[in-house]
Write a structure and sequence with these properties.
The longest helix is centred in the middle third of the chain and has 53 residues, at about 220-275. This protein is α/β, with parallel strands linked by helices. Helices cover about 65% and strands about 10% of the residues. Helix 2 runs antiparallel to helix 3. Residues about 350-360 have low confidence and may be disordered. It has a 6-stranded mixed beta sheet, sandwiched between helices. The chain is built from 22 helices and 10 strands. It is elongated.
Length: about 600
Amino acid sequence: MFKTTKRIIDWCGPYKKRLYLGFVCAFFATWFGAAPTMVAAYTLGKAIESARTGSPFDTSLIVLSFAAIIVLVLLRFLFSYWRAKLQESIGYELAAEQRIKIGDILKRVSLGYFQENSAGDILSTVTTELSSLEYQGMRMINEVVNGYINVVAIILCLGFFSIPAALVALAGVLLSLLFLHGVSLQSEKNAPVNEKAVEDMSGATIEYVRGLPIVKSFGQEGASIASMKKAVNDSKNINIKIEKGFTPFNCLHLFSLKLASVGLVLVTAWMTLGGQMELPIMLMFCMFSFTIFGSVEAVNDSAHVLGVIDSAMDKLEEVEKAVYIDEGGSDIMLASHDIEFQHVSFGYEVSPQGREGALEHDKREVLHDVSFIIPQNTTTAIVGPSGSGKSTLCNLIARFYDVNSGEIKIGGRNVKDFTCDSLLRNISMVFQNVYLFHDTVKNNIRFGNPNATDEQIIEAAKKARCHDFIMSLPDGYDTMVGEGGSSLSGGEKQRISIARAILKDAPIVILDEATASIDPENEHLIQEAISTLTQGKTIITIAHRLATIQNADKILVVDGGGIAQQGTHKELMSQEGVYKRFIEIREKAEGWSIG
């Protein structure tokens, strides 16, 4: 519990000063909250003593007590206000910074990271885990820190009036601390289990939502929702089990403090009867005894939550320790943009273990000893059967993954010498499956160049042959696009992605089967857009269409994880091999028609 409290305080970093000032305010707020009871009890004791002995009672004491109580209540609320003002927003500010930091980290890791860590796991870290810190962290450590600062002060105060009373209070607090340790151990043990249940539930929900079109088309709602129902029920059962495990320790913690309160009443009453304590002091202790441990009683809730927070901080640290793919990279400006592969081999991780546990034989090798050169300002077509490694070549150029051996150079510099941003500044990519953000059409195009003006965006849209259909939308360029571009057709999304690439104006353009699934009606528009995009640039295109392949300056034929052939269309057609067979099949397919 105290270890987690220290971790949260360290996590606060530059906000520590506000946190400590908040602790001071909370301390005074607690004492000013308790003081009115003490003042009232003391005044009542004086009144009873006066009546018992027949001595005159100073009525001005009532007025003074009433005024003191009003002042003390006002001071309590004043210090409570300042504590909230200083501390409450720290969690929100830190969580916002942490989420942005995680976003930056995820942008700089290898795409292999997302194979080793599920979407549900990452989502849980950014939302559930951080939310526990955001909403509960500051409140929990305030309860723990001020709870025990207050109880120490109370015990010292009791010791001033009565050593036996102070010892009874100390014994109760130490006993409760022992049971709180049990709560903490339970929480630490259960937090990872609960966390896994939340991750499974997030992952199952994401999978169900993503697969809804398939679910509906095959009418398999029952089968598809089974894993989601199981994850939800598992989470419910785990949480019930956890609560049952906490109950005995919670009860014992509270029982030890109430026992100490009863002990205080008995000790002070015994001392008063023996003439060792004045009646007003005894009444003050009696009235105060059952609220004296209030700040410590609430710590049991903190002990529950701190275990969860500790686990959440472990997850955040794991994300922060993720290996940046561009660690040690520099911001490099290139004079030329030729691309060279030198004996490159690469395989995807297939091990269920994390990066540290993965072994060499856990990799499924996709490319083996690949070497070729793509000269600057030329067009290179990459062809080959499905699964041969065509898209992998493009992903390695953009350094979405790192090669296992060999080197990839752009402009004579190893891609590992660059930062991700400086490398990708030179590359525009147009994918077969276009993703558009849930934002306006204008902002989706502006993604290619955040500093672009509206005029530049419109010019890029015209070059991409999408200006006309954009203007027909309800709000033109300010029309909101559904998540993933769901409100647009495939051809429309593709042209917007090309406009985005035109606006970026990078010297290297990678087209990953950009026209593979486009209908004939849109194809000529997209081909025109691509022609505008690729003028005077180094072009790498994964293509199946004969027109694209035949006009390329160089063709790379990928087969079996290597470059089976390379050359121009004419050169390759003069050779027996994969390419010639591929073209013959394509010619038959494209020449086929309905009679």
